[in-house]
Write a structure and sequence with these properties.
This protein is mainly alpha-helical and about 70 residues long. The chain has 5 helices and no strands.
Length: about 70
């Protein structure tokens, strides 16, 4: 379980996930797909509408601090 906690986007390493998290379009798409794949429909929809600004900044901060993208629920 600790192994999955350090990887977020599709099981990629933290550094690769951080690079994709910094790029706005990939963060938006990968965040949506990741939450959709986990079964979090509401979070996936919120990422579609808020992913360009609020959630993108929170994703970057969370990725640097805790090595995973922002999880609303």
């Amino acid at each position: 379980m600790a192994k999955n906690a350090s990887k977020d986007y599709f099981g990629w390493s933290w550094l690769v996930s951080l690079i994709f998290c910094i790029i706005p379009i990939t963060s938006w798409i990968f965040g949506f797909v990741t939450r959709f794949k986990e079964g979090h429909w509401v979070c996936a929809l919120l990422r579609i509408f808020l992913g360009w600004n609020i959630i993108w900044i929170l994703d970057i901060i969370c990725m640097i601090v805790s090595h995973h993208i922002f999880k609303l629920f």
